[in-house]
Amino acid sequence: MKLELDLLNCYGINQLIKEFNFTKSDASNGVHSLYAPNGTLKTSLAKTFKDIEAERETKDLIFPQRKTKRDIKVNGQPILKDQVMVIDSYDESYSSKQLSTLLVNDSLKQQYDEALKEIDDKRALLVKDLAKSSGKQAKSVPEIVCQAFNRPEKELLELLSELFAKENEDFSSFNGFKYGDLFSPKVLELASTDGFGQDLADYVETYDKLISESAVLSRTFNHQKASVISKSLSDTRFFTASHSVNLSVRGERQEITSKKHLDEILQEEQNKVFHNPELKEKFSKLDKKLTTKETQEFRDLISENQALFPEYKDVNKFKQKIVISYLQAHQSAWEDLVTIYQSNKHIVKNIIDQAKQQETLWRSVIETFNMRFSVPFKLSVDNQDEVILSNAVPVIRFVFYDGRDTSDQVSHQSLLSVLSQGEKRALYILNVLFEIEVRTKARIPTLIVIDDIADSFDYKNKYAIVEYLRDIAKVPHFNLLLLTHNFDFHRIVGSRIIGSARDRRLLASKTATNIQLNTEKYQNDVFNAWKRGMHQNELYMLASIPFVRNLAEYCGRDAHKKKLTSLLHLKQDSKSITVEDLQ
Q: Rounded to whole angstroms, how far apart are CA atoms 127 and 231?
């Protein structure tokens, strides 16, 4: 891959014209390292590439009136946002948006989809029927059903099975009412007020008293249940077959031989109840509270169906009755769904159990990270089965270890508050690795621009970064452009990743008119020269002190570390140390 830069007035870059050759070969792996002293180029170039990634315009922040040019090409064509990924030095708020991709298991997902296909088909048919009965959109039906019984939506199928197994009353007299008409937000708000609630309680008490005094009706056999029986007898052509029923009216048995006769008796009793002066007075009090525009439709509905009023004494129970009435109206579709669900339930459960135990790419990234980095936290995904099978958003759990054989679960924000700067960067890098793994799996050709990612790390974790960079560089469709103002890190990358490709180890220098990227002149390992000449050259010896001091710390040589520290910082014994002491 060839990358061409032609930049003018981009975040302080006065002018930069450069072509990079990222072509991979046995001797070269598509990596360029660019060392830039502070204020030269590094952050400005990273911002410019980030603008491409975010599809933003590039400008000069200090001198916005200056004309900006941003001409970046890959193999002669303008670079696209999907061809570049910028890894900032540190971004505390960054998290991979494609983490769920790493948790995918295509084989299990296919088995799960096949097992659920027949269930989903039956579910869709029932939901469509319930949507018609309730007057709600199909997507709202599962929420309505589960909310009525205080169950989460993911338990919809189990809930429908439990309801089907129960001996439910016949609520078919309710299935002609639309859910939104019965339970509009304004009506529910009004029903929850103390004044309305007291008036409603008075109405119900009077209604129950009148029902209990009825010659035909009772609390357990009110006009709604009587209406259900009348309809059922008519639907089954009971009277047409010359059958009759005996009705007890004021203790006397009365034979009923037609639906018309039965309805007349029931209507007469209903009129006695609802035309009762005392009940009408109670209704009038409630009616006066239904005068607003928002409650007008409900007022019209309830005026024609006063028998609904007592149900609002327990709104949640009423919702359950309405839901069951809708289900009963579509008994066949309800039964088909429950039957299919029960027959496939154990198959689905087995697949879910497998999904919870799956070894995914996500786990592989975590294990490699834990092996290379020393950090006091571990990660897990609480809902791995739902992510794999249902495309749910991953719920990440952090467990913090304090080094005393104890651990505790913490939130992401709490974790950040106790981590050191280097540990925070390690967590950030872990999120970056998730994103890179997704691109690796998707085989997306990408120029990865890396902005001083090794800052604030000790030597051990800095070399862990180098190992990661070496791994990433080996991916055929990745090319790396490393930007750093840490010359030590630049040299490490040059020797351990780039190797002998001299033209890919660059140094930036800035003039008043442009920025030059020059090939690094001295690339041999300086330590070999220093070791050979240290006994003859005092400058070599003095230059080695900081490195040897860090090496002593890493190897646990505390006495040597303390002695060399006294040569870097003024200590009590600093002036008494001789060259002979170092030998």
A: 26
d(CA 178, CA 339): 28
Of the chain, the percentage scoring pLDDT greater than 90 comes to 30
Task: Please check whether residue 145 is in contact with residue 131, taking contact to mean a CB–CB distance below 8 angstroms.
Answer: no
pLDDT digits (tens, 9 = 90+) for 329-384: 999 999 999 999 888 888 777 777 776 666 567 777 777 887 887 777 777 777 67
Residue whose C-alpha is closest to residue 517's, from 42, 182, 22, 150: 42
Helix, strand, coil percentages in the chain from 3-state DSSP, rounded to 5: 55, 15, 30
Q: Phi/psi zone of residue 391: left (φ > 0), alpha (ψ -120 to 50 degrees), beta?
A: left
Burial zone of 398 (CB within 10 Å; 0-12 exposed, 13-18 middle, 19+ buried)? middle
Angle at 523 between CA 518 and CA 529, to 5 degrees: 145
Q: Which residue has the tokens 């769920």?
A: 100
Q: Is the pLDDT score of 6 beyond 80?
A: yes
Length of the chain: 583
Q: For 245-314, give the DSSP string.
A: EEEEETTEEEEE-SHHHHHHHHHHHHHHHHT-HHHHHHHHHHHHT--SGGGHHHHHHHHH-GGGGGGGGG
Strand-pairing partners, residue 509, are: 516
**Residue linked to tokens 């330590």:** 527
| pTM (2 d.p.) | 0.53
State the Cα–Cα distance between residues 35 and 208, nearest whole angstrom. 88
Q: What are the Cα distances from residue 159, in Å, to 99, 152, 154, 155, 360? A: 32, 10, 10, 6, 32
Q: At 380, which helix (H) or strand (E)?
A: strand 377-381
The upper half-sphere exposure of residue 260, i.e. CA atoms within 13 Å in the direction of its Cβ, equals: 1
- For residues 14 and 8, give the distance between their C-alpha atoms in angstroms, rounded to a whole number: 5
Highest mean pLDDT among 201-205, 251-255, 313-317, 373-377: 313-317
pLDDT in tens, 437-461: 888 888 889 999 999 887 767 777 7
Q: Mutual orientation of helices 315-329 and 106-134 as an angle, nearest 10°?
A: 100
DSSP H stretches of helix in 373-411: 384-390
What confidence tens digit (pLDDT) does each residue in 486-495 have?
A: 888 888 888 8
Joined together, the tokens standing for residue 189 give 């708000």
132 CB neighbour count, 10 Å cutoff: 12
* Beta strands 31-35 and 69-74, pairing class: unpaired
DSSP β-ladder status, 478-484 and 31-35: parallel
How far is it, in rounded angstroms, from Cα 180 to Cα 219? 27
Instruction: Report the 10 Å Cβ neighbour count for 41.
Output: 25
Q: Are 68 and 60 in contact (CB under 8 A)?
A: yes
Q: Which sign does the torsion angle of CA 494, 497, 503, 505 carry?
A: negative
Rounded CA Rg of the chain: 39
For residue 1, count other CB atoms closer than 10 A to its CB.
15
* Distance (Å, whole) CA 428 – CA 452: 13
Tokens of 102: 């790493």
Q: Are 324 and 171 in contact (CB under 8 A)?
A: yes
* Kind and range of the H or E run holding 214: none
Give DSSP secondary structure letters for 122-133: HHHHHHHHHHHH
Rounded to whole angstroms, the Cα distance separating 321 from 477 reads: 60
Pair of tokens at residue 573: 């014994």
